[in-house]
């Protein structure tokens, strides 16, 4: 019983959990159909521009996804420091038009130890979580943050993409609540859910060691968290041999198909995938620059899938939970 509490034994237990996760992938149901993935990968880099591209391209994608009536576009990308040129203004303009048209945009942010260009909570629709019960001292966070550039922050929401790795390097849980300075903000998956449900942060109640409670129109959503605000991923869906369990298209393919079909109205143009009412996660997997890492189902999984799996858990009410201590000891 004592050894089971030591790190070596806990790592072994975590690996057996990964084995069970892989085994059940042959029998589990498909992911929530509302989630869609857009990847900036090698073919996009070859046909558009080297990563990181001019942000005007991101604005164009927001515009095109709005034309397809996507409900939310969630960028697992840090767009923090302002850049020279017209790209920032172009992305901010298209994002503002997208929000007016009904497609909400959520952009990635991250904690930082050093002061950056932006301070959290200064502009835009993103507001901190204020109704938090419990001991906040061990909530993941830092004194500053990498936030979207000012023009983008004024019209879009942002959520924290921090996904620290476990003792063996594998991501099995993420902080759902994150501290920046003296304020607390939701993770990207949680912020995306709030935006999708159109629930402001002020109405969210967080009880550390219990759950995040979200009062929506027809129900109270309950998302379990531990006493430090971490969420245990029920990691089901990944990418294997180029196949992604979530419906997925390349960034370039979406730009091309939507432009040909909706903008140019070319004869014989292929109709884009149906994105009406869906939540589109945008991630990056360019070889040598990929935002990838080890997960329970892969050695180098696109990390956008971590956030997509977390949101899938929330939409489906499909949570992994640790048994109470008294049950284990008994």
Label this structure with key terms.
25% strand; alpha/beta; 9 helices; globular; 4-stranded mixed sheet; 330 residues; 29% helix; 7-stranded mixed sheet
Structure write-up:
- With 330 residues, the chain is of the alpha/beta class.
- It is built from 9 helices and 20 strands.
- It has helices at residues 7-24, 42-47, 55-67, 87-101, 150-153, 188-197, 251-263, 304-316, 325-329; strands at 35-40, 72-78, 104-112, 131-133, 141-142, 144-146, 157-160, 173-175, 177-180, 183-186, 205-207, 211-215, 220-224, 230-232, 239-240, 243-244, 248-250, 279-284, 292-295, 298-302.
- Strands 1, 2, 3, 6, 7, 17 and 18 form a 7-stranded mixed β-sheet that branches. It has a 4-stranded mixed β-sheet with strand order 4-11-12-13, with no helix packed on it.
- The model has no long low-confidence stretch (mean pLDDT 92).
Fraction of helical residues? 25-40%
- The averaged pLDDT comes out at 92
Order of helices and strands: HEHHEHEEEEHEEEEHEEEEEEEHEEEHH
Indicate the overall shape. Answer: globular
Alpha-carbon distance between the two ends: 10 Å
Q: Which class do the helix and strand fractions yield?
A: alpha/beta
Percentage of β-strand residues: 25-35%
Largest sheet: 7 strands, mixed
The beta-strand count equals 20
Please state the CA-atom Rg, rounded to the nearest Å: 20 Å
**Stretches with pLDDT under 50, minimum 5 residues:** none
Q: Give me the number of helical elements.
A: 9
């Amino acid at each position: 019983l004592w050894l089971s509490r030591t790190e070596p034994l806990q790592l072994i237990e975590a690996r057996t959990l990964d084995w069970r996760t892989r085994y059940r992938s042959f029998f589990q149901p498909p992911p929530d159909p509302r989630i869609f993935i857009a990847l900036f990968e090698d073919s996009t880099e070859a046909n558009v521009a080297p990563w990181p591209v001019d942000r005007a391209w991101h604005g164009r994608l927001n515009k095109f996804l709005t034309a397809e009536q996507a409900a939310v576009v969630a960028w697992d990308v840090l767009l923090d420091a302002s850049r020279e040129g017209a790209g920032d203004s172009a992305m901010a303009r298209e994002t503002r038009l997208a929000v007016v048209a009904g497609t909400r945009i959520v952009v990635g942010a991250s904690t930082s130890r050093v002061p950056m260009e932006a301070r959290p909570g200064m502009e835009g629709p993103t507001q901190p979580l204020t109704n938090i019960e419990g001991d906040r001292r061990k909530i993941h966070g830092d004194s500053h943050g990498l936030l979207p550039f000012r023009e983008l922050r004024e019209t879009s929401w942002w959520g924290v993409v921090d996904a620290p790795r476990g003792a063996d390097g594998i991501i099995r849980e993420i902080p759902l609540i994150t501290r920046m300075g003296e304020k607390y903000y939701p993770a990207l998956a949680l912020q995306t859910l709030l935006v999708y449900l159109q629930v402001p942060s002020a109405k969210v109640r967080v009880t550390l060691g219990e759950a995040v409670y979200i009062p929506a129109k027809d129900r109270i959503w309950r998302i379990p968290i531990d006493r430090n605000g971490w969420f245990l991923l029920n990691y089901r869906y990944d990418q294997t041999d180029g196949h992604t369990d979530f419906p997925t298209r390349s960034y370039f393919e979406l730009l091309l198909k939507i432009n040909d079909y909706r903008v140019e109205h070319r004869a014989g143009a292929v109709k884009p995938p149906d994105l009406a009412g869906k939540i589109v996660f945008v991630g990056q997997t360019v070889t040598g620059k990929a935002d990838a890492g080890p997960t329970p189902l892969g050695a180098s999984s696109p990390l956008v899938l971590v956030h997509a799996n977390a949101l899938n858990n929330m939409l489906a009410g499909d949570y992994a939970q640790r048994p109470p201590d008294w049950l284990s000891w008994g």
